[in-house]
Design goal:
alpha/beta; Aminopeptidase; six-stranded mixed beta sheet; two-stranded antiparallel ribbon
Amino acid sequence: MMSFTHPAPLALLLTLAFSACTRSPNVSAAEPAPQAAPVASPAPAALPHVDGQRALQYTREVVALGPRYPGSPGHAKTEAYLRRQLKADNLQEDTFTATTPAGHLRMTNFIAKFPGSKDGIIVVAGHYETLYERKDFVGANDAGSSTGLLLELAHQLRGRKLDGYSVWLAWFDGEEAIRQWSESDSIYGSKHLAAKWQRDGTLKKIKAFLLLDMVGDADLNIDRDANSTPWLEDVIYKAAADLGHQGHFFARSLPMEDDHMPFARVGVPVADLIDFNYGPNNSYWHSPQDTLDKLSPQSFQIVGSVVLETIRLLNQG
């Protein structure tokens, strides 16, 4: 991803405990209380429990595969890992050959589809590969965190009947530039999939596109992206506020070039959930310091639960 401003120096683990307590009035033994027919009160539906520790464990397993840029052994291992993790789901692989400054590179997007009862799709996406030919970069936050959190969201959606829009989870390949970030040298996977979905009519069914990028930072501060759809960003902020985590969202605004842009350009409502303030003056970004010790399970819990609450609010709307 690329920001066009200089970088400066949700969701909550919801535990919904529902207890039923019946209080009876004092009645004398000689005058028993009349028996009223019980009235059942509908219990609120419990939200899925986003497990930040499990999301972090998925991230740890991905990072252990090593640098995972296209064509590397770690990339092939990551593809195999995603297939194993998603084997019980409706998994589609979108494999293509990208023309890059390093020549033709094979890339693969992974899409896990969870059907809903309403006509329409909400896409939640992130990328999984790391900087090209950077053997000193394991990308724990960028993009291990999005890979791990998407796998946790798949765990939450798996085996459930979704009372709302279908949810598709997408792991993009080729987000990072091969040589230097530019319109032609970046976001290869999302550009390819947006074009494919435009050709086959899928784009018309997408109600919202939520992008996750750099969401595991222990010092979590999700930026408001000026290139995202304002009303969708407002829904995300409402979800965060409803869960008590508005303090982790939208303290600053900046325009981001990221995997949401190919979808934004063709009219899909998009939102980029990104914390582009990683370490002092963003110094951990794209550096060997992007390691697991900088991440927190609480950050995964916050972002994951805000995503699920955002989906719930979109279904209501």
